[in-house]
Amino acid sequence: MNFYTADMHFGQESLLASGKWQERPFMTLEEMHTEQIKKWNKKVTNGDDVYILGDVGSRGYHNMHPEILAQLKGRKHLILGNHDDVSDLRVKQQFVEIVQMKKLTDSSNGENRKVLLTHCPYMMWEGQHTGTIMLYGHLHDTIDEFLFQKYLREYNKARPPKQEKKEVYCRAYSVCQCLWGYEPVTLDEVLSGSDSGQSFR
Predict the structure, then answer these.
(1) pLDDT of residue 166
(2) Of 124, 120, 114, 115, which is closest to residue 100 (Cα–Cα)?
(3) Cα torsion for 176, 129, 77, 14, to the nearest 10°?
(4) Cα 132 from chain centroid?
(5) How far apart, in whole angstroms, are the C-alpha atoms of residue 182 and residue 39?
(6) What pLDDT sits at residue 201?
(7) Global confidence as pTM
(8) CA-based angle 7:44:27, to the nearest 5?
(9) pLDDT per position as a tens digit, 175-193
(10) Reduced to 3 states, what is the DSSP secondary structure of residue 63?
(11) Paired residues of 102 in beta bridges
């Protein structure tokens, strides 16, 4: 099974409830790391693939925390984010691949769906009108995320699909941990949660 997540930000104190940004409900890094590891390993098995859409730690190779990554189940794939530094061999060894972006096919509700994985979202992406779903991170639960989703809604309204070309509405969803209860999610969870407004926002 495939899982997706982004923006774990191991070791980044500024995101804690006591930090500069006060994004997360944790008072200490130990509390945040413990919850992230527990929730990850409760869902993921070593036979699963987990695609991390960037920002494993905070800036610099010494903040990538390979000792935490080693505790997480599954085959880990890294789509590089702006905070990621994989120059340390101990970090590289934690991933089966490290890439700038990735295209793959995943199954949702019994249908094969094309998926584009990236850290920062694009306003335009290949296949957006023919069913390719973009998953991304980076924006967290910020005004930027709100404005990007607002743009996408307005774009779809202004440019409805052309039925003769079998076009569909453009769909893109954030898998940032702070929006999904600090755990990896499946494509089914992303699509059903986003469509029903039941994400952890």
Answers:
(1) 83
(2) 120
(3) -20
(4) 16
(5) 7
(6) 34
(7) 0.93
(8) 45
(9) 999 999 999 999 999 999 8
(10) helix
(11) 117
- Any residues with CB less than 8 A from the CB of 179 and at least 6 apart, and which? 140, 141, 145, 199, 200, 201
Q: Which of 65, 62, 68 has the alpha carbon at shortest distance from 87?
A: 62
Non-local CB neighbours of 70 within 8 Å, separated by 6+ positions: 94
What is the CB-side half-sphere exposure of residue 18 using CA atoms within 13 A?
A: 7
Here the tokens at position 53 are 């859409």
Residue 127 CB contacts under 8 Å (≥ 6 apart), including other chains: 114, 116
d(CA 139, CA 93): 27
What six digits make up the tokens of 82?
A: 């702006």
Cα–Cα distance, 75 to 124 (Å, whole number)? 30
Contact 67, 74 (CB under 8 A): no
Sign of CA dihedral 117, 96, 10, 32: positive
List pLDDT tens digits, range 31-77. 999 999 999 999 999 999 999 999 999 876 568 999 999 999 999 99
Residue with token string 């509405």 = 169
Structure tokens at 149: 């989703």
At 194 the pLDDT is 67
